[in-house]
Amino acid sequence: WTDAGSPLLVNTLNLRDALQKKLEGSYCVAVGMRYGNPSIQDAVELLQPCKKIIVFPLFPQFAKATSQSSIDCAMNALQEKKYNLNDVHIIEDFYQEDFYIHSVSSIIQQSLQQNPTDFLLMSYHGLPKRQIDPNNNYQQKCYVTSQRIAETLNLSSEKYQVSFQSRLGLAKWIEPYTDRVLTELRKKNIKTVSVVCPSFVADCVETLEEINIRLRAQWMKLGGDAFHFIPCLNADEKWVERLILFFTCSTVIDSMQKQSCFPRHCGD
To answer: Which of 16, 63, 81, 208 could form a disulfide with 138 if both were Cys (CB 3.0 to 4.6 A apart)?
Structure first.
């Protein structure tokens, strides 16, 4: 928690402000939180003058509990305000889109140059196994994201691993678990580790406390030499620029009219 409040809210509002500043008056950027304030209903209120709406859940890898829940809430709020839903375009996920992969890879590259490491751990938000949809597999999308990042950074498979954090209760969650992977890395005599959380685009309690404080303490207690936390995208300048190119690309605007999928390489 920061002096300004929730780190998730602060970092998300900073992203909104950075986008709005560069877009000026051509777009209206509004933030709506699924739980908390400003709410999704508050965001829809701010968008009343707009004719076309892009709904962009900030979850790169689609899951029903996160992405779909937010989309459903947004669509209900828009229907209540009598929006023409043909003028609403939903971006379901962006786990392998170039504007996202290149942005995350750039943040990782900067960290690796400043803090040489033995191993890169890509820790994603976990889900109970019972919530995994075989037809829209969150876990598989996390692996695709990591593979694309590794290819971009030219990382061999021996130099990185995927894991899942934030499990709660006694139910089975998707594996491998981040804290247990850390123990295995020390058994392999890995001395320095860097950790990035690609399923979060804004730093929050799950990254700043669970990873940068608790996981760091675990690593040092296990006898590791150094632990390097890699921040989320937040309001990184290159991330903001790529997002704007993605949203304003002429083929993206056309896709709103045709309701087709957004082009994967637009703006990169």
So the answer is: 63
pTM for this entry = 0.92
Those residues whose C-beta lies under 8 Å from the C-beta of residue 15, and which sit 6 or more positions away, are 201, 202, 234, 235, 240
| CA–CA distance, 122 with 135 (Å, rounded to integer) | 24
- Residue 147 phi/psi, 5° resolution? -65, -40
**What is the CATH architecture of 98-229?**
3-Layer(aba) Sandwich (3.40)
Domain limits, the chain: 7-94+235-258, 98-229
Task: Spell 109-137 as b/e; 16+ CB within 10 A means b.
Answer: eebbeeeebbbbbbbbbbbeeeebeeebb
Q: Are 12 and 49 in contact (CB under 8 A)?
A: no
Q: What's the fold here for domain 7-94+235-258? A: Rossmann fold (3.40.50)
